[in-house]
Amino acid sequence: MAFSKREIENLLRLVSRTKDAELNCEECLALVAEFAEQHLAGKSIGSGLQAVEQHLAVCDECREEYEALLVTLGKIDDDSPA
Amino acid sequence: MNRDNDTWVAQLSSAGAEREVALTELRVVLFRNLRKALAGRPHVDNSFLEDAVQDALLRILDRLDQFQGRSRFVTWATSIAIRVALGELRRSRWKDVSLDSVLDDTDYAPTRAVDSSPSPELLVQQEALFHKLHELIETALTEKQRAALLAELRGMPQDEIARHLGSNRNALYKLTHDARKKLKSALQNAGYREDELELTY
């Protein structure tokens, strides 16, 4: 088990962004819809949602899901079936 | 029909025809949103989307009491459907890959971990930091923490890593979070300030 150059670099990036208290993936999921709506509305992110931003900076899977949600949000103004 | 958040929750929580109508409409909305969210990805066809929406509906109904109304209901439901669908795509891609095969790779060579920066000073800082981090990975982390971090860095889904380790995604997150905290604290004890960690790589 050995870390390559790229993996050490990526790990260092994650370590530098690590906080003592972080949301886990389930906690992030509970808040990410609100975070995405506020982000797209250009609103400043409140303190309660800064933890979402931090989680997205260290969790590739949640970030992938968030980016997919942003792609979708542009088209969900109409809740009714097409 | 357009529903507000309270109406979605009330109708999905009710019994009878009202619930069925709401479920049918939510199914259509989620299908449409997932199709857009996952457009262009391999293995995403109507059959996959229908299965993902069905699984997502079950999860959404199971969590209705957790919806706090701080976003639109459809946005919240879509976030859950995306997690379900991407989770399934990741699982199908990695289901036959063993953790050992992911972790089995060439030896780490510290000299390769140096950026070809033109700045000699930065080059020296990077080399020292990478050496220190490499040393800490070996000395400060448990075998399980090293395996989990490395598997994640190599792209293995968290659910799959957790399955191989006999754990779950939340417990795995705690394991890797504790490992990152341990490395950061050890680097800081070795004299690296937080801003230096950001600037050096």
UniProtKB/TrEMBL annotation, chain A:
InterPro entries attached to this UniProt entry: Anti_sigma_zinc_sf (IPR041916)
Origin: domain of life: Bacteria
The protein's name: Zinc-finger domain-containing protein
Species annotation: Bythopirellula polymerisocia
Phylogenetic lineage: Bacteria, Pseudomonadati, Planctomycetota, Planctomycetia, Pirellulales
TrEMBL record, chain B:
UniProt xrefs under PANTHER family: RNA POLYMERASE ECF-TYPE SIGMA FACTO (PTHR43133), RNA POLYMERASE SIGMA FACTOR HI_1459-RELATED (PTHR43133:SF8)
Keyword annotations from UniProtKB, A to Z: DNA-binding, Sigma factor, Transcription, Transcription regulation
Entry's Gene Ontology molecular function annotations: DNA binding; sigma factor activity
Family: Belongs to the sigma-70 factor family. ECF subfamily.
GO BP: any one term: DNA-templated transcription initiation
Keyword Ribosomal protein: no
Every RNA polymerase sigma-70 region domain range: 34-94
Residues covered by the RNA polymerase sigma factor 70 region 4 type domain: 140-183
SUPFAM superfamilies: Sigma2 domain of RNA polymerase sigma factors (SSF88946), Sigma3 and sigma4 domains of RNA polymerase sigma factors (SSF88659)
Protein's name according to its UniProt entry: ECF RNA polymerase sigma-E factor
Gene symbol of the encoding locus: rpoE_8
InterPro entries documented for this protein: RNA_pol_sigma-70-like, RNA_pol_sigma-70_dom, RNA_pol_sigma70_r2, RNA_pol_sigma70_r4_t2, RNA_pol_sigma_r2, RNA_pol_sigma_r3/r4-like, WH-like_DNA-bd_sf
